[in-house]
Design goal:
Length: 583
Amino acid sequence: MARALPSDTIPLLRRLWREWVRPHRLQIVLVLVLIAIGAAANALYPLLVKGAFDLLEKKDFDTLKWAPLIVIAVTATKGLALWGQNILTNRFVTRVEADMQAALYGHLIDADLARLSRESPASLTQRFTTDFAFIKEALTRLFTVFFRDVAMLIALVGVLLYIDWQSTLVAGLVAPFVIPPIARVGKKLRRVATATQEQVGAMAANVSESLAGARVAKTYQLEGYLKGRATQTFDAIRDLKMKAANARARMDPVLEIGAGLAIALVIIFVGWRLQNGTTTLGDFAAYSGALIMAAQPVRTLGNLNAIVQEALAALARYFAILDEAPAVREKPGARPLLVSKGSVAFKDVRFSYGEGAEALSGASFTAEGGKTTALVGRSGSGKSTLLSLAPRLIDVASGSVAIDGQDVRDVTLTSLRDQVAVVSQDIVLYDDTIRANIAFGKPGATDAEIEAAAKAAAAHDFIMALPEGYGSAVGDRGGRLSGGERQRVALARAFLKNAPILLLDEATSALDAESEAQVQQALAKLMRGRTAIVIAHRLSTVRDADRIVVLDQGRVAEEGAHAALVKRKGGIYAGLYKRQFEE
């Protein structure tokens, strides 16, 4: 479970600064210097107005002729400061975004399968896009808008106090009526933003699942059902976005009315003072200009609150994932695995996925070194779970898995997984060349080693028939190859790895007869002299196994050789074999 994160703004921003922003503090200092220069230049405008009015009243036209040059110099300074500020801000913000994305990706790649299965790939992918869009936007606005406008506001308030401190205090009377409503809107936006981001993740999973299953959807005419389900999701997101938009819409009237009240109070107060002769027309013009200029950053900062709240919701979700400790961790002082015979012993193993029923309920058996052990049983009996436990893709809830007497939890993960090769029905090929996909079995392998592995897997001939041979791209998830070709590339990867322990999960179930024959021959060659644990629903493929383990409801119900199990009256294996034989 994710550790509960504080939802307060300060802890989240402090952590963001400490872990991701602080390494770029030199650039940030430069940005703040440029912001200060721009704010100072901006604050000179009212003073220039005041000076111009005073010169006009005195009819000092000789000095007044320098005013245009001064204005040009001030505006050029402000423009150059803004340009440098935007360039530096974008440079470090995009760097922070990329570093945070890399950290999240690394954490998810290192996570155990049980955690990854709790959330769909599409939903997790959405975190790299939608959530980071909010975070990047807020970081960018923080330096291009927030600090800039705060600096401008401070400078302008200083000018206002310098010109007329009494009127400034009068204008400040509006603040207590404006700040509380904005704070309430901000809290609501945080809640709505969190719900929206979660709903967008569900939408991404929904769309991805629907498009991936387009063949089934069309065959069973599920278009109407899928459209209806998607529409419900889209409407839910729309409702949340409308709530956010309505909340943001409340800010503008509050800010506008507040600014109007402040200006109205000042006009009344200054008008009264003009009548009494305690202020000048130049002071009034300069003060009014500065006050109107100050109203703009106040409105901007109020609206920026909405963006910050959405980013804080995304940031809380980000840190929640990053703080999840992986269930499968290397024990301090773990030793390298030393394989001699390669026997794999499962002792009283228990495991459950989440809050559901146990997938394994005390399973015990030993796959002897150098021999083939077949796992059979009905769907859901725990076969695939056992295969995931051997290389510690998941960990037992209780009991143990040991290789040559060494508990897999006591050895280093690298040494454990170096000794295990996996070939399953769900072939994973990455969108790269055939050569690269085979070489994953042994990073740094030579072309000769890769070709030898492909020949052993009966893959060399079809690879060489492709226009670019081993340099041919396999496409997304190996989509440019047939099922049999993908399976043989995966087998070549296992041959190249040359691990003493081999795990086969329905490696030929989805193949046609010709492809199956080729793959079976390659598998027989691959299994020779290795400890092989094989899952197969077609019992004809496991009759020659040295030992067959029959699982039922997470327990070992029977085990023995094929001939003995078939003869056992009332046995589960005998019943399964009889049904398949009759079919």
